[in-house]
């Protein structure tokens, strides 16, 4: 493993590349990444990055967003099959239908979406900025795509808006049940429950804190409590433990494992950098249209 890491370091120098990783990828990849973070942080890093090559250890929509924001860089993906199923759970026809049905409508798309959906939306959001962004929108009607659970969480905070939900979901977060949380609380009554808003509303209701992966890490780090029940993909445990060696973290269930994020390995990071393969390419018109929704998010959320 150490040799592989050295090889990756050398390749990064040789190709003038930066390695970005999401908190859900394997510990070994997080360990060697130049930047690790949530979706919003990584989008901002991609925007300001000046290296020639961005190697994105994450799922497709992340690399796509990096390319949309940074067309002059080469963006490569360690595994092109690492895709987020939720990103495909809405289609353009449904968006067009809502635009016909409602006046004064904003189409808000979670960054976990395809470039095509972004191109047909008014603004993008991530789990860490969705509340701020939607609050700032002048429109009363909000069509929130593709994730119903994040939409419902934000909708519950903004009763003055009329939310229309789409039935997309993350299978990893949906597999966490309220029963799982209650049982974990029985075993560890002193623990605080930290929940990602992609979880179902009954799980969100049990959270002492609800927020993005970075939000969960920051909350646990600042908290004076020592024990936590974590309701999100288990990859966050790496950073949680790095930052809080004296604290204890329990993963709430046994299936909090995103098979797509876990496709990224040291081997495919090395191979991709070495061969400069799996480059993200987008038709220019699509890129420019999708960029408007990302730019709008960056403008409002800053
Ligand atoms: P955040 O890291 O933005 O909370 O997103 C979670 C996620 O599901 C990424 O796929
Ligand atoms: Fe998609 Fe869920 Fe995996 Fe995130 S954890 S990439 S939302 S399937």
TrEMBL record:
GO MF: 4 iron, 4 sulfur cluster binding; metal ion binding; quinolinate synthetase A activity
E.C. numbers: 2.5.1.72
Membrane-spanning residues: none
Protein name: Quinolinate synthase
First-level EC class: transferase
Keyword annotations of the record: 4Fe-4S, Iron, Iron-sulfur, Metal-binding, Pyridine nucleotide biosynthesis, Transferase
GO BP annotations, alphabetical order: 'de novo' NAD+ biosynthetic process from L-aspartate
Its biological purpose: Catalyzes the condensation of iminoaspartate with dihydroxyacetone phosphate to form quinolinate.
Pathway: Cofactor biosynthesis; NAD(+) biosynthesis; quinolinate from iminoaspartate: step 1/1
Cofactor(s), by name: [4Fe-4S] cluster
Catalyzed reactions per annotation: iminosuccinate + dihydroxyacetone phosphate = quinolinate + phosphate + 2 H2O + H(+)
Organism, as annotated: Anaerostipes hadrus
The keyword rRNA-binding is annotated on this UniProt entry: no
Entry-linked InterPro entries: NadA (IPR003473), NadA_sf (IPR036094)
Cellular component GO terms, alphabetical: cytosol
């Amino acid at each position: 493993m150490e040799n592989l890491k050295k090889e990756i370091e050398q390749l990064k120098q040789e190709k003038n590349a930066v390695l970005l990783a999401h908190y859900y990828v394997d510990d070994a990849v997080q360990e060697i990444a130049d930047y690790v973070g949530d979706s919003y942080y990584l989008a901002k890093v991609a925007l300001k990055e000046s290296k020639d090559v961005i190697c994105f250890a994450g799922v497709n929509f992340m690399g796509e967003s990096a390319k949309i924001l940074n067309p002059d860089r080469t963006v490569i993906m360690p595994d092109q099959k690492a895709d987020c199923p939720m990103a495909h759970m809405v289609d353009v026809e449904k968006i067009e239908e809502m635009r016909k049905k409602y006046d004064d409508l904003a189409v808000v798309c979670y960054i976990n979406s395809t470039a095509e959906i972004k191109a047909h939306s008014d603004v993008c959001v991530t789990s860490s900025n969705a509340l701020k962004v939607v609050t700032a929108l002048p429109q009363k009607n909000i069509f929130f795509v593709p994730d119903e659970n994040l939409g419902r969480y934000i909708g519950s905070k903004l009763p003055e808006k009329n939310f229309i939900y789409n039935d997309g979901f993350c299978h990893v977060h949906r597999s966490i049940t309220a029963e799982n949380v209650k049982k974990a609380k029985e075993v560890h009554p002193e623990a605080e429950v930290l929940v990602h808003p992609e979880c179902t509303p009954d799980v969100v209701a049990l959270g002492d804190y609800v927020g993005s992966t970075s939000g969960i890490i920051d909350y646990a780090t600042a908290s004076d409590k020592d024990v936590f029940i974590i309701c999100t993909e288990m990859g966050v445990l790496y950073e949680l433990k790095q930052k809080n060696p004296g604290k204890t973290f329990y993963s709430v269930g046994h299936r909090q494992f995103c098979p797509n994020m876990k496709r990224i390995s040291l081997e495919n990071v090395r191979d991709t950098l070495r061969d400069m393969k799996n480059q993200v390419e987008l038709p220019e018109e699509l890129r420019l249209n999708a960029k408007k929704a990302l730019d709008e998010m960056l403008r409002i959320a800053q």
